[in-house]
C-alpha cells in the first residue's frame, strides 16, 4: 500500500541570479545618483518611494530610459527585462532618492495595463509613464474593509455609456497629485459563499466630477496618504480595466508586483547606512548589525527570486505576500536597533544626518504595514496558500 504524499506549495520561487550585463547598468545608475547628490538636488531620506515626490527627478529618469523599462518599445518603453528594472529600482531606493511621483505607475500600473488593458488604454497611458510624466495611485483599501479586499463596498452601477461609482477608498498614496488610479468596485451584489466574486476594476481620472480627495497626514505632517470619495463618479466603458467580474483575479495578479519589490525592505536602508557610520570604530554591536545585514541579504534573495518569476510570466502572489510581511517587520527592526545602539535622539527638525533619518523612519513606520496589506492579512494569505486554513 503506497502512502499519498501531499506537497506544500513553495513559499519562494527558485533563486535568480542577475545577468552579468546588469553590472554596467548598476554602475551607470550609481554615477548618476552621485552626480545628483553632489549637486544638492535632493537629500537621502527613508521611505522615499511614498514620501519623496519630485517630478523633475522622475522626468530625468524617464529621459535616461530608467522608467517603463519593461514596457515594449511600441508603447514608449524600452523592452528591457524585469531584472534590469530590479537593478535600477534597488539602487534608487538604497540611495534614498525621491522616486514617489512615478513609483506606482512604473511598478504596477504599466505591467497591469500590458496584461489586462485595452490597446487604447495602453496607447493613452504607457508612453507618459515611461517618460515620468503620468502618475497613478491605487484604489483598493476601504475604511470598513482595510486590507480585506473581498470586503470592498464601493459600488459601480451600470448607466448609459459606462458606470457610476459611489464609495470611499483610503490610504491612497499620492492621489492628490496623481492623474488617475485603478479603483476596485462591486459590479454585482456580494455573495457570502464567494466573497471574491462580483468585483471589477476601473481606471478613474482623479479630476473627474464627483471625486473628492481628503488628506490623511502622517505624524510628521507630511501628506501622501489620502481618502478618496466617489459621489456618483461616471467612468466610461472604455475605462473599464480588463473584464467585468474579473477584478479579484486581476488585483491578486497586480499585488505580486506591489508586495515583492525591494521597497519592502529598503525603505529604511539610508538609516541602516547611517547606523553603520555612527558605529564605525566601536565594538559590541557586531551581532545586532550583522543580523540586520544578513536578513537584508536574505530578503533581497527572496525578492529577486520573485522578480525572476515575474520575468518568466508567473504571478507568485504567495511569495510576494511572504516578502512583504517579512520586509515590513525587518524595516521596523532596523529602527529599533538604531535607537538601541546610538544615543543620538531623533530630530525631525534636523537638515540631515542620523538624527533626521531616525526621526523620519520612526514617524513613517506606522504606515509600513498599511500599504500593500497588513501583516495579519498577509499571514492569512500565506496560511491559505499552504492549506493551513
Topology:
Blueprint: H1 22-38, H2 48-51, H3 55-63, H4 82-94, H5 100-116, H6 119-131, E1 136-139, E2 155-159, E3 162-170, E4 180-186, E5 199-205, E6 211-216, E7 225-236, E8 240-241, H7 247-260, H8 263-266, H9 269-279, H10 286-311, H11 317-341, H12 353-364, H13 375-385
Parallel strand pairs: 1-4
Antiparallel strand pairs: 2-3, 3-7, 4-5, 5-8, 6-7
Give Rg in angstroms: 21 Å
Largest sheet: 4 strands, mixed
Low-confidence stretches: none
Rounded mean pLDDT score: 90
Structural class: alpha+beta
Order of helices and strands: HHHHHHEEEEEEEEHHHHHHH
Task: Please count the beta strands (DSSP E, at least 2 residues each).
Answer: 8
Q: Please tally the helical runs, counting DSSP H or I stretches of 4 or more residues.
A: 13
- What is the percent of helical residues? 40-55%
General shape: globular
Q: How many angstroms separate the termini?
A: 29 Å
Major beta sheet, strand line-up = 1-4-5-8
Strand content: 5-15%
Amino acid at each position: 500500500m503506497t502512502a499519498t504524499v501531499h506537497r506544500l506549495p513553495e513559499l519562494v520561487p527558485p533563486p535568480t541570479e542577475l545577468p552579468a550585463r546588469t553590472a554596467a547598468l548598476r554602475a551607470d545608475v550609481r554615477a548618476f545618483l552621485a552626480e545628483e547628490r553632489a549637486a544638492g538636488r535632493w537629500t537621502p531620506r527613508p521611505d522615499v518611494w511614498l514620501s519623496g515626490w519630485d517630478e523633475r527627478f522622475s522626468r530625468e529618469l524617464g529621459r535616461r530610459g530608467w522608467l517603463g523599462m519593461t514596457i515594449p518599445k511600441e508603447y514608449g518603453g524600452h523592452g528591457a527585462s524585469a531584472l534590469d528594472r530590479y537593478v535600477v529600482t534597488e539602487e534608487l531606493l538604497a540611495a534614498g532618492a525621491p522616486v514617489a511621483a512615478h513609483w506606482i505607475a512604473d511598478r504596477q500600473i504599466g505591467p497591469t495595463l500590458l496584461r489586462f488593458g485595452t490597446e487604447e488604454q495602453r496607447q493613452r497611458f504607457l508612453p507618459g509613464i515611461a517618460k515620468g510624466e503620468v502618475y497613478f495611485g491605487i484604489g483598493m483599501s476601504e475604511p470598513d474593509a482595510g486590507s480585506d479586499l473581498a470586503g470592498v463596498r464601493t459600488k459601480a452601477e451600470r448607466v448609459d455609456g459606462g458606470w457610476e461609482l459611489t464609495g470611499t477608498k483610503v490610504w491612497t498614496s499620492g492621489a492628490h497629485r496623481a492623474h488617475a488610479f485603478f479603483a476596485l468596485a462591486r459590479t454585482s451584489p456580494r455573495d457570502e459563499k464567494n466573497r471574491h466574486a462580483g468585483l471589477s476594476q476601473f481606471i478613474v481620472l482623479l479630476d473627474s466630477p464627483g471625486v473628492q480627495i481628503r488628506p490623511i497626514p502622517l505624524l510628521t505632517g507630511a501628506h501622501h496618504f489620502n481618502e478618496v470619495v466617489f459621489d456618483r463618479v461616471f467612468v466610461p466603458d472604455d475605462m473599464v480595466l480588463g473584464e467585468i467580474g474579473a477584478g479579484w483575479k486581476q488585483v491578486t495578479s497586480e499585488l505580486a508586483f506591489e508586495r515583492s519589490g525591494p521597497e519592502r525592505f529598503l525603505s529604511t536602508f539610508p538609516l541602516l547606512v547611517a547606523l553603520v557610520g555612527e558605529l564605525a570604530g566601536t565594538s559590541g554591536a557586531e551581532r545586532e548589525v550583522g543580523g540586520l545585514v544578513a536578513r537584508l541579504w536574505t530578503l533581497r534573495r527572496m525578492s529577486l527570486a520573485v522578480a525572476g518569476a515575474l520575468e518568466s510570466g508567473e504571478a507568485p502572489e504567495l511569495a510576494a505576500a511572504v516578502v512583504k510581511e517579512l520586509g515590513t517587520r525587518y524595516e521596523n527592526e532596523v529602527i529599533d536597533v538604531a535607537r538601541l545602539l546610538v544615543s543620538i535622539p531623533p530630530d525631525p527638525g534636523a537638515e540631515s544626518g542620523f538624527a533626521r533619518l531616525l526621526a523620519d523612519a520612526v514617524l513613517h513606520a506606522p504606515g509600513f504595514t498599511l500599504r500593500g496589506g497588513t501583516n495579519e492579512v498577509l499571514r492569512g494569505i500565506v496560511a491559505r496558500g499552504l492549506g493551513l486554513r
